[in-house]
Amino acid sequence: MRMRRKPWARPELDAWDFYIGKPEDYKGRWQTAFDTPRPLHLELGCGKGAFAAQYALRFPEVNLLAVDIKSEMLGLAKRRIEADFQAAGRTIGNVRLTAHDIQWIEAMLAPEDRVERIYINFCNPWPKPRHQKRRLTYPRQLMQYRQFLVEGGEIWLRTDDDGLFHDTLGYLAEAGFAVTEENRDFPPEGYPACPMTEHERMFREEGIPIKFLIARKAPLSA
21 and 49 in contact (C-beta within 8 Å)? Predict the structure, then answer.
């Protein structure tokens, strides 16, 4: 379902201190966008912000950069982050939102940014063969992530889609990532580092098993 336009979203984002309107300007210096330098984690496709809000609250020792292409989504994420931090009595300091086409993520992140972990939560599975190059786990994408992931850095993936999960295991091997954990029926309690998203809640209510993996950046074979 296509999300309706939200004329308020972009002006509200532009007026918010924690939205980065020109992410390319921070390439190689993302720590300067945060109040304090901390380990940098990345969420690709943050949607309405449920994960970003709860993750940033649970892990104040981490800086989280949450990316989505749609201002409408990011506007909702902004409001969710504000509401959750206010409810917790906390000041926002360790989460930033930005809009960018993830297909060209290398335009906004550099090796100097030293991302330690990437979260991909319930991304579009693009099931048709002619569309699969658009997947966030396609080898072309994984090779971009390698550029700014530290050695030993991780990708954490959750999905409801069997085909995407199966294919991603092959993509990861091709791109020099070692799968260190794989679970095809991820329990709701999972890890503290996996707050539930809106999509996960919906799929669980429908009885669809959640697939989960952790993959570690390994040296590329000669």
Answer: no
